[in-house]
Amino acid sequence: MFINIINSISVGAIPFILLLIPAYGFFKKVKVYEAFTDGAKEGFNTAVRIIPFLVAMLVAIGIFRASGAMDILVNLVSPITGLIGMPGEVLPMAIMRPLSGGGASGLMSELITNYGPDSMIGRMASVMQGSTETTFYVLAVYFGSVAIKKTRHALPAGLIADAAGIIAAVLVVRVMFGA
Amino acid sequence: MINVVWFLMIAVGVIVGAFTGNLDAITDSAIGSARTAVDLSLGLIGTMALWLGIMKIAEESGLIKTIAKGLRFIMVPLFPEVPEDHPAMGAMIMNMAANILGLGNAATPLGLKAMQELQELNPHKDTASNAMCTFLAINTSSLTLIPATVIGIRAAADSANPTEIIGPVIVATLVSTTVAIISVKLLQKLPIFQIKLENIEEASN
Q1: Nearest residue, CB atoms, A154 vs list B137, B149, B157
Q2: Which of residues 76-135 of A touch B (CB under 8 A)?
Q3: Which of A33, A125, A130, A144 has the fewest CB atoms within 10 Å distance of its CB?
Q4: Is A59 found in the same domain as A31?
Q5: pLDDT reported for residue A1
Q6: How many whole angstroms separate alpha carbon B142 and alpha carbon B135?
Q7: Does A54 touch chain B (CB under 8 A)?
Q8: pLDDT tier at A70 (50, 70, 90 boundaries)?
Q9: Domain that holds residue A166
């Protein structure tokens, strides 16, 4: 029942918006076709402007991942994360999450397959994936689209928020689903 | 900060790779990632054009202004530097609404539209403004209340209750977004994150 409501939201939301906004414009006597094409012409430039920023970011992340440095980082951090009750199996995914959305999603699927979706590890992985974002990607794309090079406090704030989300995911799952 | 993090990822990666014998993998990954970045960027063109077009209709019809007016009480404290009737407010609201609903394909183009509007207000074109950093931190903290993809993966793995994670996700998302807002507002006061004088002179030249 609940899953049906969620499904219909995710299926219906975009068609609804695609109808609602032009309909509102039409009744307000906006020349909807002309306005649409006028706005849409910026799409190409924006996408092209992002390229150098995204190349820089994804190449650095790619090198870091491929080198095996991730395993060393996991070993360094695991004594700390163990203190809050995070199982060691989940840690690589937690570290991957801000770096690569696809990478983290792959690790989550692996954990769910290996330990089961209703295990403690499977639930933690699901909640982590759902409650955090790919910080480095968002930073490169959003700032890149307007050619911002000096990012000031955006990255530290984003990473602190990721850490808070991951810790919250661990604790909430422990409290709600026991031990 | 970003310069240090970027350099360290590459430097640590190459040095560790040399010791672990992963240098081949590093080369492949560097070249492959560069290609992926271009594919991802170009893949955005279509959805960017679609949502920027829809946004233009919403803007010209006055819909954005109406929504922005209704949510003034949240937006003005979050973004005190942005005039309350500026189009940036409307674009940021649309982006956050799309994020909350889990509509990733719509959220990114709407977010980029918001960044363009914020850039108009930004006196230092190569440096992020306070409003930009706040908007980015909120976005990177995730706003999604219903993670449809995760629920789908859980259902496919025969979970007894694929949606049971929604409650915990909402709690964790609220925590991460609250922490993002608090830390971005505190960090912006630190001396090392102030916009340096030389940058200001550069911008005025």
Answers
A1: B137
A2: 98, 105, 108-109, 112-113, 116-118, 122-123, 126-135
A3: A33
A4: no
A5: 64
A6: 11
A7: yes
A8: confident
A9: 44-177
Is A138 in a helix, a strand, or coil?
helix
> Is the ipTM here above 0.90?
no
Q: Quote the radius of gyration of chain A (alpha carbons, Å).
A: 21
Cβ of A130 within 8 Å of Cβ of B157? The answer is no
Coil, helix or strand at residue A150: strand
What is the domain count for chain A? 2
A131 and A53 both lie in a single domain = yes
Amino acid at B82: V
- Residue from B19, B129, B165 whose CB has the most chain A CBs within 10 Å, to mutate: B165
Domain boundaries, chain B: 1-44, 62-204
DSSP state of B66: H
What the block records as the tokens of A142 is: 């959003």
Which residues, listed in sequence order, are joined to residue A150 by a DSSP beta bridge? B127
Q: Residues of A with CB below 8 A from B52's CB?
A: 39-40, 42-43, 46
| Count of residues in chain B | 205
Residues A30, A83: one domain?
Answer: no
